[in-house]
Write a structure and sequence with these properties.
Elements lengths: L2 H14 L2 H8 L3 H15 L4 E3 L4 E3 L1 H25 L7 E7 L1 H18 L3 E7 L6 H4 L3 E5 L7 E9 L1 E5 L1 H7 L14 E2 L8 E6 L2 E6 L4 E2 L3 H9 L5 E4 H9 L4 E3 L8 E8 L6 H15 L8
Parallel strand pairs: 3-4, 3-5, 8-11
Antiparallel strand pairs: 1-2, 5-14, 6-14, 7-12, 7-13, 9-10
Helix pairs in contact: 1-2, 1-3, 1-4, 2-3, 5-10
């Protein structure tokens, strides 16, 4: 088996986390796949996988080599495409991830527009309210809200959002308005998913970040459920501005405690460093950047 074929086996084993599944995908026998990885590890002088009876996991050197192996194969594909005159045409499958509500509201329209423009591309979009690992989970592009900690990513900032406190006008007419974060103790509180472990909300008080502990009457495992409960007048909740934007504009929700809000968070489009963005990725990022920057609900400071 030559070096390129061995790289393909290595990439597939890392993706499937299984020698048997990877061998089925590649049309090889499991022993052949195992021998190929063993020979690769011997040639490199490092252990690429930690193996158990149930699972195969990349080691730290293996994770670094995976990034390089993918880049090499992508470079080869790009070179072949350039030689045949098809490099500039987006093709293949584009894997995208984004937060759930953000993806539903703002990314899905971009995806449908992208598919309409590029007939040779298919899209896999996974909406998750957690930070994903692009390398390990095999995503090409991610939309993230918040400050980025991974310096190995290319990022394009497309807007900013804030965490806000809000409720239905009818609720405030009946129960009054909180004037300070401490006043929330006297109100019916709805906890969205991300606050289930902190038991409180953070506010900016006299230039310092302070946690105000609360006793919610309703806990939700999804931000959309918390939004719906607030619209129905159940109480006060906290959401990101993009989640509540349309309802705030139409006066179905009312924002309170604005002077205690924390600093805005960036909205970024990210992809892997060390991988030249191919046509399918470049075209999506260009379209998403323009569309999201034109969105009035993602304000730029």
């Amino acid at each position: 088996m030559d070096k390129l074929q061995t790289m393909q086996v290595f990439i597939e084993v890392a993706k499937q986390q299984s020698f048997s599944v990877a061998s089925e995908v590649l049309g090889l026998s499991a022993p052949a796949a195992s021998r190929a990885i063993a020979a690769l590890e011997e040639r490199l002088g490092v252990k690429l996988f930690n193996r158990t009876t149930r699972l195969v996991r990349l080691t730290e050197p293996g994770a670094r080599f995976l990034q390089d192996a993918k880049r090499i194969l992508e470079d080869l594909e790009e070179a072949e495409a350039a030689a045949s005159g098809t490099y500039a045409t987006p093709a293949g499958t584009l894997a995208i991830t984004a937060p759930v509500l953000f993806g539903e509201k703002y990314v899905m329209p971009i995806v449908t527009d992208y598919l309409a423009k590029h007939s040779n591309v298919t899209v896999k979009i996974i909406l998750l309210d957690r930070v994903t690992n692009l390398l390990e989970e095999d995503f090409d592009v991610a939309i993230r809200i918040g400050h980025l900690k991974d310096s190995s990513l290319y990022a394009t900032t497309v807007g900013h959002v804030k965490k806000i406190v809000c409720g239905a006008p009818a609720y405030f007419e009946q129960h009054g308005y909180p004037e300070t974060p401490e006043d929330l103790a006297n109100h019916s509180i709805i906890f969205p998913a991300r606050f289930e472990h902190t038991n409180g909300w953070y506010f900016q008080v006299q230039g310092k970040k302070e946690l105000v502990r609360l006793n919610p009457r309703l806990r939700c495992n999804h931000n959309g459920a918390a939004l719906k409960a607030a619209l129905l007048g159940q109480g006060i909740t906290t959401l990101m501005t993009y989640q509540a934007a349309e309802d705030l504009k139409n006066k179905r929700l009312q924002r309170v405690l604005t002077e205690f809000e924390e600093e805005p968070l960036p909205v970024s489009i990210i992809h892997m460093e060390g991988r030249r963005a191919n046509a399918k990725t470049r075209c999506f990022i260009d379209l998403a950047t323009q569309t999201l920057r034109d969105n009035p609900f993602l304000f730029m400071p």
